[in-house]
């Protein structure tokens, strides 16, 4: 009968030992150590991701500024179409006056001096 009793005592000892190992393995200080190891492994990669994201944000902000500036320039061009039409009219008028002056100069006989210039 001693053998079953020994087996029972051996089982109790191994159960207690297993429970003690389980408690030690899951002790808060061990958990903190594992957390520290995880952070130590993960932190460089996370820092690199953060730096990449900041660089991309700066590039995006630059692109947004460029697009906004281009949109503003296009809007200003559209708004200035009135002035372009006015300049176009003035240029047509100047060409017409030049053509009339050339025609008037061509119409004079060679003996007649050309009209005095207003310069």
Automatic annotation (TrEMBL):
Keywords: Lysosome, Membrane. It is found in: Lysosome membrane. Its main location: membrane. GO terms for biological process: heart development. InterPro entries: BORCS8 (IPR019320). The keyword Iron does not apply. It comes from the Eukaryota. Coiled coil: none annotated. GO terms for cellular component: BORC complex; lysosomal membrane. The keyword Membrane applies. Belongs to the BORCS8 family. PANTHER family: BLOC-1-RELATED COMPLEX SUBUNIT 8 (PTHR21146:SF0), MEF2B PROTEIN (PTHR21146). This is BLOC-1 related complex subunit 8.
């Amino acid at each position: 009968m001693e053998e079953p009793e020994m087996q029972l005592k051996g089982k109790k000892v191994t159960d207690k030992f297993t429970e003690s190992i389980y408690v030690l393995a899951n002790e808060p200080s061990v958990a903190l150590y594992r957390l520290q190891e995880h952070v130590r492994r993960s932190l460089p990669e996370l820092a690199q991701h953060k730096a990449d994201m900041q660089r991309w944000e700066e590039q995006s902000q630059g692109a947004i500024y460029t697009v906004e500036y281009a949109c503003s320039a296009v809007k200003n061009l559209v708004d200035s179409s009135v002035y372009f039409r006015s300049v176009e009219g003035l240029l047509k008028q100047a060409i017409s006056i030049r053509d009339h002056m050339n025609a008037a100069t061509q119409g004079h006989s060679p003996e007649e001096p050309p009209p005095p210039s207003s310069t």
